[in-house]
Amino acid sequence: MAELKGRDALMRRLNQLAPNVEKYAAQAKLEVAEEAAEMMRERAPTGATLEYRESFSGELLANNPNKQQVGLSQTKDRSAAGVFAQYIWRFLEFGTAPHSTVKGGGTVLGKKTAAASGKGMHPGTAAQPHIFPTWRAYKKKASAKIRAAVNKAVREAMGK
Prior knowledge:
Structural class: mainly alpha
Distance between the termini: 25 Å
Largest sheet: 2 strands, antiparallel
Number of helices: 6
Helix content: 40-55%
């Protein structure tokens, strides 16, 4: 029977059994992040320029300390990798509701004035999902790739 005592204990034990586990897993995680970024880039909306589309990159989280993680809690994994893109991904992925763009348009009076005049109203944008559907489709393959890297390290250690 296996007893798990947390991620740190598990990784310590794995490193005792197979010292190359961290190295192989880190390499696989970075490859997975780069592949996911490429897939998302292919599905990203283009717009007037390709600036947003070209902003996707798969990188180590440690190399991007000022970037905020979305959808998960902070990780203690030093070799964690992720996909990075311009901040507007949220607006494109989920869309926006119609809203006022005039000065003071955020107040109740500003909204009434903008609605009555019809000026300064942004019609909103439809959702253009390209990040989460892509990740959901790729997640199983990504997990298998990381597992294969760990298994490779364990096989190498057992073969010694």
